Each structure stands twice: as structure tokens, then as C-alpha cells.
Amino acid sequence: QVQLVESGGGVVQAGGSLTLSCVVSGISFRSNEFAWYRQTPGKQREYVAIITSGDSTAYADSVKGRFTISRDNAKNTVYLQMNSLKPEDTGVYSCNVYGYQDYWGQGTQVTVSS
Q1: Of 72, 80, 94, 110, which is the most buried if we count CB atoms within 10 A?
Q2: How many CB atoms lie under 10 A from the CB of residue 82?
Q3: pLDDT of res. 65
Q4: Residues in Cβ contact with 93 at an 8 Å cutoff, skipping those fewer than 6 apart
């Protein structure tokens, strides 16, 4: 059974930082790509960042230069370091085994106050 468990969300002031974690089990971690998405009420889920099995990364334009995705294969964990946070970054952040629409975590809430 594939499980993804996110943590690290919270309430932070604009300009602050947070680091999200996603622990993955039940799947070959090293050989898969992983992505972070976020969703706010009334909006569609939005792609944030992706990391490949070879550690290549890509980001949505809205977070480029502020967010960093990384992975630790020894810990089966994907991270999202978020700096210079803005109120528009507020949302529920979820991680996903990229390419598998059935494999999602429950999400972690990030709230950025102005």
C-alpha cells in the first residue's frame, strides 16, 4: 500500500520560511519522481515543483527562486523548502508520486499572513 504523509505546515508571516516534508512508503522511492502541489478553496490544484529520480528539478513560475524541492533517498522523504513566503502561497500542500493520480498524501496546511 502506497502512503505519503506530509508534515511541516503552519502559520507564518509574509517573508517567513517553512520546510515541508513528505515521507513515502510502499513504493520504490529511488526510481520515482515526486511533485508538490497546492490547493486553495475555489481553485484547482496547482503544480508547485517536481524532482526526478536523478535529482533534476523544475518549478512553477510563481515559486521559482523562492522554493526548493529536494529528496533524501535514505529516508524516503521529499522536502519543500519555502522562503520569502507571500499570502498568495497560502493553501493545502500535497505531495504526489508523479504520474500516478492515485498516490497522494493528505496534505498539510500552509497559511501566510500579511
Answers
A1: 80
A2: 27
A3: 98
A4: 6, 9, 20, 36, 37, 38, 48, 80, 107, 108, 109, 110
2 is written with which cell numbers?
502506497
- What's residue 86's pLDDT? 97
**Three cell numbers at 37?**
502541489
φ/ψ of 107, rounded to 5, equals: 95, 155
Cell of 59: 518549478
Q: How far is CA 10 from CA 20, 59, 67, 86, in A?
A: 10, 22, 16, 14
Q: Other C-beta atoms within 10 Å of 3: how many?
A: 12
Question: pLDDT tens digits for 50-73?
Answer: 999 999 999 999 999 999 999 999
